[in-house]
Amino acid sequence: MLGLDDLCHDGPMIGESLLAGRAELLKFLGREIAALGGGRRLIAIDGADGSGKTTFAEELASSVRGRPVVTIHLDDFLNLQEVRHRRGQTSPEGFWLDTYDYAAFQDNVLTPLRRSGDGKYRPAVTDARQNQRLELPLREAPEESLVLVEGMFLHRDELRGQWDYSIFLDVPFTETARRMSVRDGGNPDPEHPSMRRYVGGQRLYFEAAEPWTRATRVVDNTQPDEPRLLPGGEASKRRR
User: Fold this and answer.
1) What are the two backbone dihedrals, phi and then psi, of residue 47, each rounded to the nearest 5 degrees?
2) 4-228, what's its fold?
3) 143 near 37, Cβ under 8 Å?
């Protein structure tokens, strides 16, 4: 059985040369996380806004065989607008520091879904569209669940020790901004003033955490049909 030390980003890229295309990479990662060991396991899928986290998490969940999967979206743990925007609506610091309610995320997901937890969790605490809190009934995750958490900032210091395995989707801001413009109608130039909050906040995260150095696996998801694993050395040298 594989241990986390065997899977670190500076360790052997098991089967890397045999991977061809998205389906093969997802199968490879699915086998890795399924082999983590017994009990519930917490897996992070991190990346900038527009890096493809939600789709990647959905497809990774479908690739897992032999274990139940629970998927959590960190965007369901947003702070309310008055907290998210208290430093100003264009503040990069506000985006980096105030976007998520980490206390609620800890209490409702991380603590109950770790191996020593009772498995009773809430998948969301915020309705962002209505800007209001939710009081959802508890759900219970099976004992052998793989818990996939997709969201931004998942390798920040406060969360660093929480994960049994983690993936960082590495996509340059020129591409994530283009995707966001298609999705949300924003400006496709990451240096445009309207993107200051989002790109600037993520650059603060990159400076503070260097998530590509903390992730178990780094995946270049610039071309979604042909993602590829990046060795730690190559990931550290990439321009973002």
Assistant:
1) 165, 165
2) Rossmann fold (3.40.50)
3) no
By DSSP bridging, strand 132-133 and strand 146-151 are unpaired
The long-range contacts involving 103-109, CB below 8 angstroms and separated by at least 24 positions, are 104/77, 105/74, 105/77, 108/77, 109/72, 109/77, 109/147, 109/149
- 149 and 77 in contact (C-beta within 8 Å)? no
The DSSP H or E segment spanning 140 is strand 139-140
pLDDT digits (tens, 9 = 90+) for 140-170: 999 999 999 999 999 999 999 999 999 999 9
Q: What is the pLDDT of residues 177-195, one digit of tens each?
A: 999 999 999 999 999 999 9
**Tokens 């996939």 appear where?**
148
Write the DSSP string, 6-71: GG-TTS--TTGGG--HHHHHHHHHHHHHHTS-SS-EEEEEEE-TTS-HHHHHHHHHHH--SS-EEE
Q: Give backbone dihedrals phi and psi of 102, rounded to 5 degrees, phi first.
A: -70, -30
Strand partners, 44: 149, 166
Locate the domains of the chain by residue range: 4-228
Could you give the angle at the alpha carbon of 42 between the alpha carbons of 231 and 8, nearest 5°?
Answer: 20
Tokens of 106: 């800890």
H/E stretch holding 127: strand 126-127
The C-alpha angle 65, 70, 74, rounded to 5 degrees, equals 135
Q: Residue 228's beta-bridge partner residues?
A: 220
CA dihedral (191, 195, 198, 204) in degrees, to 10, reads 30
